[in-house]
Specification:
single chain; alpha+beta; 2 domains; 12 strands; elongated; Lipoprotein-release_system; membrane; cell membrane; ABC3_permease_C
Length: 408
């Protein structure tokens, strides 16, 4: 241990009577500890929310989604489709025809997002999160079935047990004869049985209806056109590597998006909120560290004679500054260590016991989700070190300017 560390440690562990400087140092430690604990807890909550959002979307969205860059549909030939399926890492390839349509059930009507999917749609671990009740199939070609979002089903008052009531689906089309007033030429319609409900996330629940691909193909008159292809990669394969292969294969006319890119706006919003909360709590930590500045300034005034003696013995100004910088570091790091321990304990208790509830019954998670990210602790450590140096530098410089002759 060098001289500056030894003297700083003696000042920090001093057992003399409790004076105002000592009390101020303790207040500084407590302030840093509470601020650090808050940083750990809040950052962990944002990590948990980000994971929750990803898991919810993963229950409905594909791992990779292929869409045209221009327009809303593209022609799919069997040869082209098979060439994509044969790309290394591609596990399940689902065809999708998706568009808006009008749904009617017993006089109730709602515009929905009709999503026609091929038979292997449910083989991609869809609806793994949330609720799903009813038949887990999309029926047959003779009796096609629909899986409705819970919000759509509740709005239309759909009763899955009523086998004699079918959903009527209407889709607008261009009239064959110009100026025709025949309403039958303005839309196409079909009937489908409601088979099940799903509940994942409000934006999906209130909008989407899943139907067989053949049903949407006939109703929307898409023929060989598709609006997207959804890819599930093989187990053990890298999603990013498969995405790169698909981009190289398809060229600039198609976009290939992973799960995060499909909801880039929402994920970016969560990250921005996390950043601003981190900056806000770091500012609070800086305010709490003002006590370090005051306690070190008063300590420098109290220890003027000690500093003068050290200088008389040959101590340089750099040694004096080092003593007070290390004293401030000991106060701040002791508080930060305590805060990290408390933060770990709080996050662990929340994860295990769900101490703080969301306040709503979501059916997916009842308490705030949390996840500890080691990268967050790195940023917290950087913030503590930076604030400590800023708070300690001025008192350390003042201490190094003590006049030896005057004080002795």
């Amino acid at each position: 241990m060098n001289t500056s560390s030894f003297i700083a440690g003696r000042y920090f562990r001093s057992k003399k009577k409790r004076n105002f400087i000592t009390v101020l140092s303790i207040i500084s430690m407590v302030g840093v500890a509470i601020s650090t604990m808050a940083l750990v807890a809040v950052m962990s909550v944002f990590n948990g929310l980000e994971d929750l959002i990803r898991s919810l979307f993963a229950s409905f969205d594909a791992e990779l989604k292929i869409e045209p860059v221009k327009g809303k549909s593209f022609v799919v030939t069997e040869e082209w489709f098979n060439s994509i399926r044969q790309i290394d890492g591609v596990g399940i390839l689902t065809e999708v025809i998706e568009d808006n349509a009008l749904l009617e059930y017993r006089g109730n009507q709602q515009v929905v997002r009709l999503k026609g999917v091929s038979d292997n749609f449910l083989d991609q671990d869809r609806f793994a999160k949330g609720f799903f009740w009813g038949d887990t199939t999309l029926g047959t070609s003779l009796r096609p079935g629909a899986i409705l979002g819970r919000g759509v089903g509740f709005f239309l008052s759909v009763n899955l047990g009523e086998i004699n009531s079918a959903l009527k689906v209407y889709y607008p089309k261009a009239p064959r004869t110009a100026g025709s007033i025949d309403p039958n030429q303005l839309y196409s319609s079909a009937q489908i049985e409601p088979r099940a409900f799903f509940s994942i996330e409000q934006s999906f629940d209130n909008e989407y209806v899943i139907v067989p691909l053949e049903f949407s193909q006939n109703l929307l008159n898409y023929g060989d056109k598709r609006t997207s292809l959804e890819v599930k990669v093989k187990e053990g394969a890298s999603i990013l590597e498969v995405q790169a292969k698909l981009i190289q294969k398809l060229g600039p006319d198609f976009s290939v998006k992973n799960a995060d890119e499909q909801h880039a706006g929402l994920i970016r919003t969560v990250k921005l909120e996390k950043l601003f909360v981190f900056l806000t709590l770091t500012f609070i930590l800086a305010i709490a560290s003002f006590n370090i500045f005051f306690s070190l300034s008063m300590l420098a005034i109290e220890k003027k004679k000690d500093i003068a003696i050290l200088k008389a013995m040959g101590a340089k100004n750099s040694l004096i500054r080092s003593i007070f910088l290390k004293q401030g570091a000991m106060i701040a790091f002791s508080g930060a260590l305590l805060g990290l321990i408390l933060g770990f304990a709080l996050v662990g208790a929340q994860e295990k016991f769900g101490l703080i509830s969301l306040g709503i019954s979501s059916g997916v998670v009842d308490a705030y989700p949390v996840r500890i990210n080691l990268q967050d602790f790195l940023w917290i450590s950087v913030a503590v070190v930076t604030i400590t140096l800023l708070a300690s530098w001025r008192p350390a410089w003042i201490a190094s300017q003590v006049d030896t002759v005057k004080e002795l």
